Amino acid sequence: MRQGPDPKKGKGQTAGPAVPVAVGILLRENRILVTRRREGTHLAGSWEFPGGKVQPGEEPEATLRREIEEEVGVRFEKSTLIHRQQHVYSERQVDLYFYLCTGVTGEPASGEGQEIRWVSASDLDHLPTPPANEEVIRMIQDQLG
After folding, report:
1. DSSP letter (8 states) at residue 20
2. What distance in Å separates the CA atoms of residue 21 and residue 58, rounded to the nearest whole number?
3. Which stretches of 49-133 are DSSP H helices?
4. Tell me, which fold does domain 8-144 have in CATH?
């Protein structure tokens, strides 16, 4: 697992503790699955890796499997924690667990009404993505080209 030099990124203050979030970088045939956040949500219109909030008493990897199946309807054989960081948005602070997921089975289908697409690592440069994903996107691009 790699962690940046300063795990607190972004600006702003929040009242509560960081919300733990498990994020899946689903890799199939050198393509990465991304979903587009719906209008009316935090970071609407941004393309992101699927995942979700870790519930109390739940391990991040268990959250990841549950959320991926609910959100995009696929499963994966292996997940490896490749990066962890905290990011502060103006309205919230998140503690992100980024997992590389391989052995993806099933065809993605929107479970929450969001757009879904498979993209190359270089395609990520041309999509609006959450600021908290910048560092892990650079890591992916360094590995996949």
Report:
1. E
2. 11
3. 60-72
4. Nucleoside Triphosphate Pyrophosphohydrolase (3.90.79)
